[in-house]
Amino acid sequence: MILALAGGVGGAKLVDGLAQVLAPHELVVAVNTGDDFEHLGLQISPDLDTVMYTLAGVANPVAGWGVADETWGFMDALEKLGGPTWFRLGDRDLATHVERTRRRASGEPLAAVTKDLCARLGVRHPVAPMSDDPVRTLVRTGGSTLEFQQYFVREKCEPQVQGFEYEGAPRAQPSEALRAALESSSLEGVVICPSNPYLSIGPILAIPGVPGALKRCRRVIAVSPIVAGQALKGPTAKIMNELGVEASPVGVARYYGGVIQTLVIDRADSRFAPQIEPLGVQAVVSDTVMQAQADRARLAAECVALIRRAGAQPQRLRA
Amino acid sequence: MILALAGGVGGAKLVDGLAQVLAPHELVVAVNTGDDFEHLGLQISPDLDTVMYTLAGVANPVAGWGVADETWGFMDALEKLGGPTWFRLGDRDLATHVERTRRRASGEPLAAVTKDLCARLGVRHPVAPMSDDPVRTLVRTGGSTLEFQQYFVREKCEPQVQGFEYEGAPRAQPSEALRAALESSSLEGVVICPSNPYLSIGPILAIPGVPGALKRCRRVIAVSPIVAGQALKGPTAKIMNELGVEASPVGVARYYGGVIQTLVIDRADSRFAPQIEPLGVQAVVSDTVMQAQADRARLAAECVALIRRAGAQPQRLRA
Fold it and tell me: Model-level pTM?
């Protein structure tokens, strides 16, 4: 069984690939909830939704969030009523948030709600939040500390980042699915998907017990979200530059240092391999840009093969 | 200034007529909130919305609730997620409930939210809830006591009614707009719109102080919601039959006895006039079925004229 750690769009694509090449019992997906927030009285879990919609085949392929064939009557009417419209909620997407909020208010944990919503949408592979406990990513900027969605959506990632806090993480427990996967004797390895290290994976690594379990696993591979100095989507490269970190796979390898054994980097970045290996991280060159559905499956199959090969040759990992 | 008391569809039509023939400063509309309820975590005020949408010219003319040109993406997606779908919420309509809920959660009273939502939709005449305090109409049936929307929507008014309770009414204060209108020296009279007496007007009359103020006003006219033994919309006649009350303007006159001086009845019911007058209620025959926009204005103008004539000839009312 493979455990995947994922955040938003890039992560969801690789998760989709893993779901194509692994049976439901061979995969567990643990998703960042650090950018969850309450808006309009609704409990919104953007990364869980992106993974769920992607696996269900209903994700909006253009926006990178929400569902395809969406309508906007709610948003249009809300604007006429003077309501807040900086966070866009489509009519169909809204049902997810309303139903999640309703069930959580009735006492169901986030993991249980997630499991059921995924089942309703036909998702066969297990998807779980990283935790049932609230963790909130805060962004320290020059002027002030912003809640993640304020930084990400309302301020369009414009403020210069000085650092992050994962509020609640020190007291959070891994979700039952994540804990069971990390402790399972069937765990073959872990794939850290090409999501933003600070915003998507950082919150998961901030949960007590998770980094230690990953270190013990020793078959953890990450796919670099940085290709040719840029993130394919989102502010990863901009944030790395602002933090004074090299926006390259080397910076990614340093961030994940001690936790991963292997970093899959794009062919465009093959020149960085010699700088990565001295960090104790094996660099594997591949095509990491997932444009078509088949790209997802191919990259996922490569990740699985790397883990299984490492399982057969454990000494390779201790290089 | 005229005060109108209104509930759902029939009431909203006459309110619309009054708004056509009276300037904004000449009309105050107080609306039933006994059928307000919480659903999907949202605070829903069906009668306030029907009046607001009708005055804004955006009401759905077919359904009798919600807005015209509605879309149903939310409801369709909610059904796929296994959420409760017995109460239909259109995408545009949903914005009203979400925004009302959000503002009330932030501490704004219902009257303030109502005032602002109406202003946003271009409603110029003042519309207020009967009270800022929660009043919940409960329907006693053979088997059990049902919340109003369960009776009305989910059970489709099928259970046999034994009586009503207006939970919270004994502790409710009239809203500021209703109280000010009832106490105003400018109050010329009150129009009880053709709404369900038990479900729409009964809750308003259950608020302490309201019946007494209406009695002191002495220029209160009602328009019968029963025409030719039937309600034009809704379960009024069915309920009257189940309560053993004659489903005719006579039954309506008895219900409002002591509060109204005049009952406007339809031409189809003119034969009932001799049975109404002995109850101390003047019966005025008119065409009460409001099919076109012009019907609303004509009936409203007749109601206003009756009040103003009564003001000129107060002894007529004491007949």
Answer: 0.90
